[in-house]
Amino acid sequence: MFKITFLGTGTSQGIPVIGSDHPVSFSKDFRDKRLRSSIMIEYKNFNFVIDCGPDFRQQMLRTNCKKLDAIIFTHEHADHTTGIDDVRPFFFRQGEIPIYLHERVLKSLHERFAYIFDPKQKYPGAPDFEVNLISKENDFQLLDLKVTPVESDHLGIPVLGFRIGNFAYLTDVKTISELELQKLKNLDSLVINALRYESHPSHLNVQEALEIVDTIKPKNTFFTHISHIMGFHEEVCDKLPDSVSLAYDGLVLEIN
After folding, report:
1. For 53, what's the count of Cα atoms within 13 Å in the CB-facing half-sphere?
2. What digits encode the pLDDT tens for the residues 5-43?
3. Which residues neighbour 61 within 8 Å (Cβ) at sequence distance 6 or greater?
4. CB-CB contact of 251 with 6 (8 Å)
């Protein structure tokens, strides 16, 4: 069994949006307050996160996480990577931290965080990482958990989602091939992005996400990477099928 905590369920701007007059930005429902999308998985005293965005520090403080054993990155966009410097408190206590990422994502981090990754520019106190390259072609292991990468397209940018047992986490999906969908059969729980009701060039909307759900038929589905334009959490959930709901920050799932 492993435990999943939703650290953030918002889109790249988070909710509330800076300067927004949209009613959702003023909601009193805690489920309408969304940090940038990420999850933490706890398994046998082994803690790892999928993505490490700009709210990482706040997310770790909120969950009282004291140990971080690995980071998996879905892709290189800022809302999924720019918390990497805030890994330092874990590094100071534990030493180098394993990261799992595509070669393209590593190249992006090298360019944007040269003071961490370039030996010639390494800054004292910057964290060290044990780099593990991953791709859609090969599974990898975390302890005795098999992790299966699942590739989707995000307006021309390949993004990796991950299946672990009968659970899968996919974010920033716009399209996904039939071959990759085959990796998602017989799921108990699926987490997938659904930005809003209206169409979007690089993200699934609600209808498109529901079509994927209807294709692979997981027992339960949780939408993430949600925009304030989607509407109020409670009202949106009332419109969704019984087996589908919006995730929210702090939601915990226990997966067998």
Report:
1. 27
2. 999 999 999 999 999 999 999 999 999 999 999 999 999
3. none
4. yes
Whether the pLDDT of residue 247 is over 90: the answer is: yes
CATH 3.30.750.24 fits 2-255, yes or no: no
Which residues touch 119 (CB under 8 Å, ≥6 apart)? none
pTM, two decimals, is 0.98
The Cα 16–Cα 35 span in angstroms is: 9
CA distances from 44 to 2, 5, 143, 145, 169 (A): 8, 15, 9, 10, 20
DSSP letter assigned to residue 202? S
Closest CA to 189 of 108, 244, 124: 244
Give the whole-angstrom CA distance, residue 29 versus residue 188: 28
- The one-letter amino acid code at 185 reads K
